[in-house]
Design brief:
Layout lengths: L19 H24 L3 H23 L12 H28 L6 H8 L2 H35 L4 H18 L9 H22 L2 H24 L4
Helix pairs in contact: 1-2, 1-5, 2-5, 3-7, 3-8, 5-6, 5-8, 6-7, 7-8
């Protein structure tokens, strides 16, 4: 399908409509995948537990979509075009700039908590560092699923309620970003402003490639590029003595 002819899947019956009840099944498996991501490293300490958690984080929501949409489960994914890739890459630095700007405002009114990933990066070297960074790619795909699946579920609900298309997209965009931010509360010591404002703003920007291209690969590219630029910046500043 040409990019210009794509639409959001499932909410309008294209290629198949997922009922509200089936969306609940998908969301339940999505929640199970997120729980596996958090709990597997403690249940199976070491690299194996982390990889199992990441695998379940990605596979369980996809299983939910397979159960709900049958052979059309992959309708969020399209073979990426050059346009999809460039849009994704363009939004990575924009995400960093927007979240940094919001972070400055949040820090002026209260303390923020450091992302623990930075401390982990600085403890790793060589193969361990490469494997850690590599593991973030599938995890970030899972984070796209944990955002875009609720977006599409909300879009279905709002369309069922006969909300205008633009209103439905706007509400689903903001609602899914707020959910994504809330899922980071424990990461940032339950700092509500940091999770909802800084992370939520970053998520709003990261979702835009999907809104434009209707291709989950585009927002995944944006997310991976955004995080890897952040990792590289941390390592470079530390190497230069600014860490």
């Amino acid at each position: 399908m040409q990019a210009s002819h794509r639409d959001f899947p499932f909410y309008s019956g294209d290629p198949v409509r997922i009922s509200l009840l089936r969306w609940l099944v998908v969301l339940a498996l999505l929640a199970a995948g997120f729980a596996a991501l958090l709990l597997s490293p403690s249940l199976l300490p070491g690299r194996l537990g982390g990889w199992i958690g990441v695998g379940l984080f990605v596979l369980l929501p996809l299983l939910g979509l397979r159960m709900a949409a049958g052979r059309h489960w992959a309708a969020m994914f399209h073979p990426p075009t050059a346009r999809d890739v460039w849009i994704g890459l363009a939004f990575a630095p924009l995400t960093l700039l927007m979240s940094a700007a919001v972070a400055v405002g949040v820090m002026r009114v209260g303390l923020t908590s450091a992302n623990p990933v930075g401390a982990i990066l600085l403890k790793l070297q060589g193969t361990d560092l490469a494997l850690f960074v590599a593991a973030t790619a599938p995890q970030l795909l899972g984070e796209e699923l944990v955002t875009i699946i609720p977006f599409l579920a909300l879009l279905t609900v709002l369309s069922t309620l006969k909300a205008p298309r633009k209103v439905a997209i706007l509400v689903a965009w903001i609602g899914s970003a707020a959910l994504f931010g809330a899922l980071h509360l424990s990461t940032y010591q339950w700092h509500l402003g940091q999770a909802l404002l800084i992370i939520g703003t970053a998520r709003l920007v990261l979702t835009v490639p999907y809104l434009i291209t209707k291709n989950l690969w585009s927002s995944t590219i944006a997310h991976i590029a955004n995080d890897w630029i952040g990792f590289a910046t941390i390592l470079l500043l530390t190497a230069l003595g600014y860490g």
